[in-house]
Amino acid sequence: MNKRKMIAVILAGALALTGCTSTDGPNSASPTGAGSLPVLEQKDTYTIGFAAQQSDHPWTIALNDSLKQEAEARGHKFVMTDAQGSTAKQVSDVQSLIGQGVDVIVISPREEKPLAEVTLEAKAAGIPVFIVDRKLDESVAVPGEDYVAFIGSDFVAQGRAAGQWMAEQLDGSGKIIELYGTTGSSAADDRHKGFLEAIEGTNIEIVAAQDGDMIRDNGRKLMETLIQQYPDVDGVFAHNDEMMLGAITAMQAAGKKPGQEIVTVSVDGQKEAVQAIIDGTLGATAECNPRFGPKLMDAIEAYGSGQAVDPEQVNNDNFFDATNAPAELANAF
Fold first, then answer.
1. Coiled-coil regions in this chain (predicted)?
2. Burial of 238 (C-beta count, 10 Å sphere; 0-12/13-18/19+)
């Protein structure tokens, strides 16, 4: 088995996606049932409220478009709010959707705890909630008990795959810069955790880790400073492609050769990053597929028809490097 296939297996993980299955019982988020969840009346069409994190980022644009297009293709009314990168606004947006009396609320949470708390408000109002992309703080809100289901990627597996690839490229020794983001999100915490698991026992050292909030220009600005502080750094791991693309610009401006002198790996798998692999400035990126629309609509419709819905549905993601980037470029978002 080659390295790329090994990494793809890691990303698939033990938690393969479990589809919705029928049951004769009432609405529940698991085969054993969870009577405390709000009931969703079976109807031909639903008004679905979606509290988006933002709409000015390639990944979130792809997510938002996938949900909207799939909902409207099935005849549902889709009401989307845009938090514009603000956790406080996203909480307010969810409260607005509750006030509008939508049938279902879908949240892509910017941060774990505040959005978990407002999820409980939706539950109290009798509106079922589905969480996509990032997880909630489970000490506050539990899938299958406080909201119907989480549908997303295994962020730990993504970080682990990136770390394994980095360790292989560096032969287990080197100094690394980590571009973190967003603090307080499951994406950041879990990708960091997975990366640490992969490099444990090696001589790889993270010499700096700073939060770029998943924004390209922040990645550029951070790297402008960090590359001066650590001119002999061996590798850079960014929690998303946008920060890495910004960091690549800064490294080039500093006279460095990312992808050659400095090993580079990130997460998301967006088209520009896959092209950067082909161009040789990015070594690899762990996919985080944003096309949630069909899976989410299947889950909502199944829940409304009284079927059991798996409370945690984990996507299988790919891994892109020089061996497959040319073939996968057309499929990237």
1. none
2. buried
| Residue 115 scores a pLDDT above 60 | yes
> Which fold would CATH assign to domain 17-153+291-315?
Rossmann fold (3.40.50)
Instruction: Tell me the CATH number of domain 155-288+323-331, given options 3.90.1150.10, 3.30.420.10, 3.40.109.10, 3.40.50.2300.
Output: 3.40.50.2300
Give the pLDDT confidence score for residue 316 in this predicted structure: 85
Q: Report the predicted TM-score, pTM, of the whole model to 2 decimal places.
A: 0.84
Helices (H), the chain: 3-12, 58-73, 87-100, 112-124, 155-169, 186-199, 216-229, 241-253, 271-279, 293-304, 325-328
DSSP string, 223-254: HHHHHHH-TT--EEEESSHHHHHHHHHHHHHT
The model's pLDDT over 54-89, given as tens digits with 9 standing for 90+, comes to 998 899 999 999 999 999 999 999 999 999 999 999
- Which distant-in-sequence residues (6+ apart) come within 8 Å of 184 by Cβ? 87, 111, 112, 113
